[in-house]
Amino acid sequence: MKMLIAILALAAMAGTLRAQEARYAFAVRPHVTDKDLAASRFWTRSTIALVALDGAAKAADSFATRKNIDGGGAEYNPLARPFVHTTGVQVAAMAALLGAEIAAAYWTHRRRHDNVGHAVLLGGAAMNGLGAASSIKHRVADW
Question: Residue 6: inside a domain, yes or no?
Answer without folding.
Answer: no
